[in-house]
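Please check this chain.
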Amino acid sequence: MFRIKICGVTSPADARLAAEAGADAVGLNFVAGSPRRLDAESARAVAAAIPRGVLRVGVFAGTSAAEIRRLVGDVGLDAVQLHGHLFDDAPATDPPERCAELAGLPVIRAVRLDAAPPDGDPLASARRWIAAARLAGAAPAMAIVDATVAVSRETGAAALGGTGATVDWAALKRAAPLDIPVAIAGGLTPDNVAAAIRQTGLQAVDTASGVELDPGRKDPAKMRAFVAAARMLLPPSAKSG
């Protein structure tokens, strides 16, 4: 679905700059509690600034299918990213049935590595969720492996992304691949994205905090440097400007 995604974009200016830098997908955040969360009006302005040919991805966690569909139509989104917990009773959980409920919309599923022993499968939960989604009627089109959920010491709330924490690249490399396309996220920056691609072998990358001046405010130079570094390792089919 994409090779290089810049997520958590909060302004039309940053959306244009992300596209000009060479990103082929831009993420708009609708997750409660995120410093990058957009309301519908702001999101419409951001989406309108993204040029044709660049994927507009709405990022959700624990949002009903009806509300997601409403925002997709209202804002003008091309794809949906489910970023909540895989299996949990917490409000920010996206059950496997959500894919079937969103039939007709491309769905990207954020997953996280399990705390597995060296000979275990760190993607076991991700595989189980994808299999359950397929059994329920529709599997996601793509997965993003993000960093482990962090819990804020101040609020006790879980931060589902954009924390700057990285994925265990070695553990991900050891795991058998998922049966859908996979991107890597979690703490990627212009300085480490090439190493992440080399060490994991994955052919798509996603960043938010790694190209920011402040949460939600992107750094044009970092976005250009991130895309340039990723392109050095990605296949020729990646967006070229």
Notes: Residues 151-157 have pLDDT under 50 and may be disordered. Residues 124-136 form the longest helix (13 residues).
